[in-house]
Amino acid sequence: MVAQDPAKEKEKGDSRAATLSDADKKKLEKENELSEEDLKLQTELNMLVERLSQGRPELQKPAIESLRNMIRSSTTSMTSVPKPLKFLRPHYQTIIDVFDKMPDNDTKKTAASVLSVMAMTMSSTRESIKYKILATEEDIGAWGHEYVRHLAGEVTQEWNDETRDITDNKRAATLASLARQIVKYFMEHNAEPEGCDLLMEMDQLALLPEFVDAHSYNKVCLYLISCVPYVADPEDSNLLKTAISLYHKNNQYTEAVRLAIRLNDMKIINDLFTSCPDRSVKKQIAFILAHSQVYLDLDESSDGYDELMEIMSNSHLNTNHLALARELDIAEPKNPEDVYKTHLEQHRSIYTGGSGLDTAKQNLASAFVNGFLNCGFGTDKMFAEDANKWIYKNKEHGMLSATASLGLILLWDVEGGLTQIDKFLYSQDEYIKSGSLLACGIVNARIRNECDPARALLSEHLINKSNIIRTGAVVGLSLAYAGTNRADIIEVLLPVLDDEQSSLEVRCLAAVSLGLIAVGSCNAEIAEAILHCLLARSTLELKDPMAKLMALALGLLHLGQQERVETIRATLQALEDPFKSLAVIFLDGCAYAGTGNVLKIQQFLHVCSEHSEQIKKEETDDKKSGDKKDEAAEKEKEKKKEEAQDRGMQQAAAALGIAMIAMGEDIGNEMSLRSFGHLLRYGDPLLRRAVPLALGLLSVSNPKLNVMDTLSKFSHDNDSEVASNSVFSMGLIGAGTNNARLATMLRNLAVYHTKDANSLFMVRIAQGLLHMGKGTHSLSPQYSDRFLVSRASLAGLLIVLTSCLDIKSTILGKHHYLLYYLVPAIQSRMLVCFDEDLKPITASVRVGTAVDIVGQAGRPKAITGFQTHTTPVLLNYGERAELATDDYVPLTSVLEGFVVLRKRSTDTEMA
Question: Which of 27, 307, 524, 692 qualifies as a cystine partner to 729, CB 3.0-4.6 A?
């Protein structure tokens, strides 16, 4: 850049002023006016540049030193362009010319430093980094924070240019050295996110631990974790592993274990657990692992083996839940009528009263509602009065589900529960016997027992001649061992797939149950067995409503595995369309579940946007012409209708896929809600039936107003299946919340659908879900401050939602027992505190809405709008708790579930 002549500059300013209004002219004149102090500074700088231009070394050295000191003193805190840099802009090219003629000495290096800073305001060709490399070795922060930030940007650009062709050269080493200085500066000046960004851009995250100390590791780890949803695989794993190493280095074992669970890396989890020196912290880790359904095989000789294994087996779950019930004064059992509140329903004259409720369908609904309502409380009023009376009020498959509802009431109580179920195991009625087998599996959900009662009771019935009894045994085993990937359970279930005596329904249930047990494990043996079973099925069999569960089973095996599904996707090409396309959609949706992958969401949206307009046009043309079509034309038309039906089912699966992927990330979640609004209005019938289910999956146990109102609107839809799915999703978004607004909506819907047995059945199911566990439970697969997603919980939800894609043939038909696949997702919303000896203690906690504190300076508040409670306490979706007493220190930063508190002493540190 050539230095500008001041006279020409003034002339240019005058010509610009001539075209401006009077107000603008005055403003411009005011800007051009220099204060006496600024005029003096400008004159001094001009004089120093003139001395530099003379080429005399004895004048150049003091001149360049003076320039450096003047610039440095003005750039330490930069809110606007500093005056020295502003006045030196016309002389930039002059100083470059002088620099080029200087001999290689210290003066030239100092001049390079000055040019590097000046280039920040002058050039966009990365000249700051060019001159910095030639400059003196000095403290990089001496020129101010803004200069370091600018330099960091240019280092990133230069590094990416350099490493495109050559990865190991002298310049790359120089850039790496400079990056180290910049990162060190950032870490020392509360700019941790910028330091992380620089190393992430340069793929040098391995260098991070050497710059992070005990004061900055928490902010750095929070930032790394917050970046995980926005980077592609395998970079997301690298971020988590780096954060794990930082937590481990600073003895934060519970935080490191949370990240290892997110990675699903059993080796890291095991290493962290065994290397932890503190026994109390080990107990806290065991509670976290138990909640995540991760089970470690510990050495029997290890310290505290029995106690740790008891915690990890979840055997304390029932006891603590009942203690919470007593604390909240909700231990008294309730009736379904306490939920229905028919006395509050308007227009009771049109309500069919007792005659409507005496039907088998409504008795079955009451059995489900009773089970959900008293879930985990161990007692109810219906079964306590006369169990046989209530069971026999149902017909066939209804008796199966009614008997199984006893398992919900006795949930998590293995010893006491199995005793009460035992009498039904010897029933002569195969439906009741099947229901009791299913109840055994439900009772054992989430619990690990060394006696393995579920396996002992259920496995022998897998070879029973009756497919009805097989059904109860298969579903029961999957619920008892969801997410465990146990080889012995898989071994007894696999033969059911190939057994000729097994009906298609039992084979489909066996496939999806295997997917639930081995969820996210990429188990090749199960995948091969399911594919073999699919290849042996006819096209007609694959059109069965239950066959979709086989396609889903392949997806469940690869839940969250992202790119690792390429092999199984290639294998699926052996299948024929339309089932092949459906299976691929399920596979992709499950593989990227919770990742927020934008490309996959776009791909699914593209599938959903295809309309069967051509078929509609041909139908219209046929009506207009009125001509008789020959038989061949009619067949062709039927074929096209079938194709539209198949494409509609693929679109329905794609809608669920969008919800699966977007549910783990807030921005994607909001964008998906908008897209679903369009699909509900303009989509084909099968797609419209799936969208309410997708909305429900996005907001499980989180009754958002906009989602609630949308579902309420479509619960009155002309298409009965759209209405039924909308009602079910209303129950899903309110599950376990006791939301009063939703309760009122459902009571009104009960009146609206009073003459339609199927619709009324779905309303009752939704009411049961809303009041699940008397408001103490949740179905949300997200936990640990919404950072972790339980794969078993998500898999259970997906099985139920997939079966609802053809709700008339499944939930409203003979397969209503599929609703029990919700059991793996049921978890208590309680926060209970223990001392180091695992004795329950009451502690004051503040509970409020969670606030994102990533990248915020100082010690920001993590919650807002809080209330102070004493434990045990219930936490709603999106809420966070923090300790409100100085007497104790929590051994984990996330206060959820079971938390171990340590008595504070003078030398206690936050664990």
Answer: 692
